[in-house]
Design a protein that fits this description.
The protein has about 140 residues and is α+β, with helices and mostly antiparallel strands. The chain has a single domain, classed as Immunoglobulins (Immunoglobulin-like, Sandwich), CATH 2.60.40. It is built from one helix and eight strands, in the order αββββββββ. It has one helix spanning about 1-25, and strands at about 30, 35-40, 45-55, 65, 75-85, 95-105, 115-120, 130-135. It has a four-stranded antiparallel beta sheet with strand order 1-3-6-5, with no helix packed on it. Strands 2-8-7-4 form a four-stranded mixed beta sheet, with no helix packed on it. A hairpin with a 6-residue loop joins strand 7 (about 115-120) and strand 8 (about 130-135). The chain is elongated, with a radius of gyration of 22 Å. The chain starts with a helix and ends in a 6-residue tail after the last strand.
């Protein structure tokens, strides 16, 4: 009787671990870091990168990265300067990289932050909106 209980406990433990592992497994596309934080002094610029990972299941094809339009006067600018994602097909666990430049505005208070949402799309998964925060470090231009 005791061996039956031990065997049954082992089965339940195995099932619980199996269900727990599959329930927390990540699927689709993710980006890291999230959010991407970049900062520069007024009139200056900096760069930062994100890595996009396909957690599956399967391939992610027809990838596309779209940076939003810039926000206008008194705001910083965000531009894609390198992109290995657009047009790529990522196997499961595959990665690609997008590099951005952030141009900080002049004559805007130090600490001011602009926020953008960069859309990363594929044919297989929902749109991933990666948050990018640009922080202005100084009021005057360099």
């Amino acid at each position: 009787m005791k061996s039956n209980r031990i065997a049954m406990s082992s089965v339940l433990l195995a099932l619980g671990l199996s269900f727990g592992a599959s329930a927390s497994a990540q699927t689709g596309l993710t980006a890291a870091p999230n959010p991407l934080n970049v900062s520069a002094p007024g009139g200056g610029y900096t760069t930062g990168s994100i890595t996009v990972t396909n957690h599956g299941p399967g391939f992610a094809s027809n990838l596309s990265v779209a940076a939003p339009t810039n926000l206008g006067p008194k705001h910083g600018g965000l531009n894609i300067i390198a992109d290995t994602c657009t047009g790529a097909t990522l196997a499961q666990n595959g990665t690609c990289t997008v590099r951005f430049s952030y141009d900080a505005p002049c004559f805007v208070r130090a600490g001011y932050q602009d926020q953008w949402y960069v859309a990363i799309t594929s044919a297989q998964f929902p749109v991933l909106n990666e948050k990018v925060i640009g922080t202005n470090l100084s009021y005057a231009c360099e």
